[in-house]
């Protein structure tokens, strides 16, 4: 039943995923500005994580914000527009450094709770799956089995599985944590030789159109480090 009801859990909490492409010559300036002034933004609502792309993309940052409901987001956006310190110290200086902005609204899938890494200092893998139309009622069970097969290998830590509500639909973002890129590479190699993983992935990819991934490094200001 949890798959047939769609992507959201039994509450109104959702997550806004923001992806910014930064001008190549300004990436260092942008990251420094975020680390210095983001406390002005987090005074208004909860930040889940803020990362810069290391592999799979360049000059790109991803940040995820948590909201209680859509009215909460509206109130936060109104407050930010009227926060002179935030507008003056960050927005006016940061906007010229940004080439492109993209946002999505997503829910955690019903069978996933937002996790945390066992320790600080690792790396995050952000995997985006474009699934066939139909939602979790069509592909949810097979997708969950594929995720669980990877979890059961023990080489990686699941942070969250998000399904889009606004943006490109039937998109699923999965965030994994690993100690190092080499630890991830070794774990992936072992997983691809595990018959249980291979079988679960083979079943899930029947519903897959495309996928891509990024290796992300958390910023100093990120709650998820």
Automatic annotation (TrEMBL):
Belongs to the NipSnap family. Residues 15-113, 124-223 form the NIPSNAP domain. This is Protein NipSnap 3A. One of its GO terms (cellular component) is mitochondrion. GO terms for biological process: mitophagy. It holds the Pfam family NIPSNAP.
């Amino acid at each position: 039943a949890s798959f047939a009801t769609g992507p959201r859990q039994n509450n109104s909490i959702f997550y806004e995923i923001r992806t910014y492409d930064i001008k190549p010559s300004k990436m260092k300036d942008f990251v420094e500005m975020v680390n210095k002034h983001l406390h002005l933004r987090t005074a208004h609502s909860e930040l889940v994580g803020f990362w810069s792309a290391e592999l799979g993309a360049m000059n790109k940052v991803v940040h995820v914000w948590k909201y209680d409901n859509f009215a909460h987001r509206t109130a936060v956006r109104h407050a930010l527009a009227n926060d002179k310190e935030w507008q003056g110290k960050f927005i006016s200086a940061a906007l010229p450094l940004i080439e492109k902005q993209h946002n999505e609204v997503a829910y955690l899938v019903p069978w996933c709770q937002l996790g945390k890494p066992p320790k600080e200092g690792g790396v995050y893998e952000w995997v985006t799956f474009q699934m066939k139309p139909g939602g979790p009622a069509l592909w949810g069970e097979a997708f969950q089995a594929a995720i669980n097969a990877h979890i059961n290998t023990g080489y990686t830590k699941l942070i969250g599985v998000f399904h889009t509500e606004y943006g490109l639909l039937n998109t699923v973002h999965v965030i994994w944590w690993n100690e190092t890129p080499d630890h991830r590479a070794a774990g992936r190699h072992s997983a691809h030789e595990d018959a249980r993983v291979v079988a679960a992935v083979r079943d899930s990819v029947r519903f897959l159109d495309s996928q891509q991934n990024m290796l992300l490094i958390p910023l100093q200001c990120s709650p998820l480090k």
